[in-house]
Design a protein that fits this description.
2 copies of one chain form a homodimer.
Chain A: H1 29-46, H2 53-60, H3 64-71, H4 74-92, H5 103-118, H6 121-134, H7 138-147, H8 149-165, H9 174-186, H10 189-194, H11 201-219
Helix pairs in contact in A: 1-2, 1-4, 4-7, 5-9, 5-11, 6-7, 7-8, 8-9, 9-11
Chain A binds a DNA duplex through α3.
DNA sequence: TGATTAGTGAACGCAAGCGTTTAAATGAAC
DNA sequence: GTTCATTTAAACGCTTGCGTTCACTAATCA
């Protein structure tokens, strides 16, 4: 459980501008946290429009007025939920703990890890919602790209650079190569998932194996034959 | 302008079941067509929830009651709009008219055509909407996959098989290879577009060129060196 | 202790929008 | 020409849900 929201950067829009010190009872940070958590769950499960503030209040065990007190309006609450989720995402994925082995096995493991991470139902839901809301507020989409895909791409590109330095791979443009590998792993599974078709484990395995094959055909520094 | 809707298959839900012949004034097929057209525009531009039936009626130059007469309710109208759009899509993309040249140039041309087709703003909008509504009605997503991505994949796989038969490419699994090529062409441009980031022509060109390079490294039947 | 602010629960005002109804006009079939 | 269903315009009922107000209680600062 992360602490996003409890130390939120005090935006001016709608939220009370907390000066050096205010008289009277302070805002309850714990409640704020519970509210954001409940809101995130509902927003990303049911959608923005389909989520009623009253329901968020009920789930959070809090009065509706408290929500308006803390966030100002529904959009601000949604933004806070997105920030919270992005914050969680930042910590979630890392390539540090990948197993050893030859380059082929390691790539396969990475492909599987990426796949497992991206294709979780919650992640698909989250992506769908963010995409829908990006039209209304582009900053939401930008925050997601920064926290998720771009960050991941940089991490994987760094990993590839390391393998290049070690003489295992020969890559001119690691960023591009990173995109290519991840894209091939996803293949059409991406679309199928988003549009409600079942993605079978066999298909996924085939895609990952195929991605490794093609990737190594292009970038292996010491081909087997 | 296609004629989708005017010869709709007379679903039982909400729509009048037209037997062999009914007495009185028949439903106006031309109006039905105009309504679907207007509805599609609004639904895919503003979203399902944000589209008011009254607005559809106004845009179509038709009474609201006529819409309820023809379609029954809002969801049925949306479904009709999706079917109409899918029908249009079926005719739109073909690889028949690709230019001649060596395999490298032809692949590049195909990559560019695919890219141009998929990244049109209307297409991105359409995809977003369909994804959002798939949760409510999975049949909508399935219809889209059938009419769009899967169809396209089959077409491209057939093209690849042809190139294999001609001795230009060496591919075991053309369906998988088709996915890989298209996925690499899209790269992260897909995500960036969906989440509101600008996709520069330079990046797109780089992705397509990179896709061709990697694809040929893996599948070229007669490598240059 | 007293001022100030947050939290609660209930009620309200208000706007949007779906789907229906009415009464009159239109148009196709027989 | 009669018959019957569709079309139209306007109005209505109804639901949902945002955001606010009120009276009251609880917590914190000075």
């Amino acid at each position: 459980m992360s602490t996003c929201g409890s130390t939120a950067p005090e935006k001016e829009s709608g939220e009370k501008t907390a000066g050096p010190r205010r008289a009277g009872r302070p805002l309850d940070a714990a409640k704020r946290q519970v509210i954001v958590e409940a809101a995130a769950h509902l927003f990303f499960h049911d959608g923005y429009a389909a989520t009623a503030i009253e329901q968020v209040a009920a789930d959070a065990g809090v009065s509706k007025v408290t929500i308006y007190n803390q966030f100002g309006d529904k959009r601000a609450l949604f933004t806070a939920a997105v920030e919270c989720e992005c914050e969680k995402m930042r910590g979630h994925f890392s390539l540090e703990t990948m197993p050893a082995g030859n380059i082929r096995d390691r790539l396969t493991a990475i492909g599987e890890a990426i796949f497992a991470f991206l294709f979780r139902p919650e992640m698909m839901q989250f992506e769908r919602r963010i995409a829908a809301e990006t039209e209304i507020d582009p900053a939401i989409g930008a925050a997601f790209l920064e926290a998720g895909p771009w960050r991941m791409k940089q991490g994987f590109a760094a990993w590839l650079r390391h393998a290049v330095a070690g003489g295992e791979l020969a890559i001119d443009d690691p960023e591009l190569a990173a995109e290519q590998f991840v894209s091939m792993c996803k293949g059409m599974g991406d679309l199928e998932c988003r549009f409600g078709a079942a993605v079978t484990p066999e298909n996924s395995a085939r895609r990952i194996a195929g991605a490794v094959d093609v990737f190594l055909a292009a970038y292996d520094a010491r081909p087997q034959r």
